[in-house]
C-alpha cells in the first residue's frame, strides 16, 4: 500500500464517521461529529496498520478487538435517567459501533462496503421516530396505546 492509498483509507474512515456524527449532532445527541469522526479515523488507522501484513489473521484480529472494545464506549452512552427503567442512548451507542465497523472497512480498503454501509446507516438514522411510534401502536396489545413514553434514544 502506498502513501496515497493509506491517506485515502484514513480519509474515508473520517468522512464516514463525520457523516454519521453530523446526523447525531443535528439530533442533539451526546456524541456528535467529533466523537464519530475520531472513531472512524481511529478504527481506519488500526485496521490499515495490519491490512497487508505477512500474517493473514492479523487484520481480522485487529477488527475483532476494535469492534469488541468499541462496545465499551457505546456502553457509556447507555444510561438510565431520573430513576427510569428505560435505557437511553441505544441508537447513539449502536451508531458508534457501526462507525467503528465503517472505519475498519475503510482501513481495509473495502470501498463498496464503506460507501454502502454509510449510506444505509444514514438512512436508518434519518427515519423519524414517528414511524416507530406508529408501528408500536399498530402492534400494541389490546388496551395499550403503544406510546410507552419517550423514545429510547
UniProtKB/TrEMBL annotation:
The chain crosses the membrane at residues 6-22, 31-50, 62-79, 108-127. Keywords: Cell inner membrane, Cell membrane, Membrane, Transmembrane, Transmembrane helix. Pfam families: MgtC. PANTHER family: MAGNESIUM TRANSPORTER YHID-RELATED, PROTEIN MGTC. GO terms for cellular component: plasma membrane. Residues 10-133 form the MgtC/SapB/SrpB/YhiD N-terminal domain. It is a multi-pass membrane protein. This is Protein MgtC. InterPro entries: MgtC/SapB/SrpB/YhiD_fam, MgtC_SapB_SrpB_YhiD_N. It comes from the Bacteria. It comes from Bosea thiooxidans. Belongs to the MgtC/SapB family. It is found in: Cell inner membrane; Cell membrane.
Amino acid at each position: 500500500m502506498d502513501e496515497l492509498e493509506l491517506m485515502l483509507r484514513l480519509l474515508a474512515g473520517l468522512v464516514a464517521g463525520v457523516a454519521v456524527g453530523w446526523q447525531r449532532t443535528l439530533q442533539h445527541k451526546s456524541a456528535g461529529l467529533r466523537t464519530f469522526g475520531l472513531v472512524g479515523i481511529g478504527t481506519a488507522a488500526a485496521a490499515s496498520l495490519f491490512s497487508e501484513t505477512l500474517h493473514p489473521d492479523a487484520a481480522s484480529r485487529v477488527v475483532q478487538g476494535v469492534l469488541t472494545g468499541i462496545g465499551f464506549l457505546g456502553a457509556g452512552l447507555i444510561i438510565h435517567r431520573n430513576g427510569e427503567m428505560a435505557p437511553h442512548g441505544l441508537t447513539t451507542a449502536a451508531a458508534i459501533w457501526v462507525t467503528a465497523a465503517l472505519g475498519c472497512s475503510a482501513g481495509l480498503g473495502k470501498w463498496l462496503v464503506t460507501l454502502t454501509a454509510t449510506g444505509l446507516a444514514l438512512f436508518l438514522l434519518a427515519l423519524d421516530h414517528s414511524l416507530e411510534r406508529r408501528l408500536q401502536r399498530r402492534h400494541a396489545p389490546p388496551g395499550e396505546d403503544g406510546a410507552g413514553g419517550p423514545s429510547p434514544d
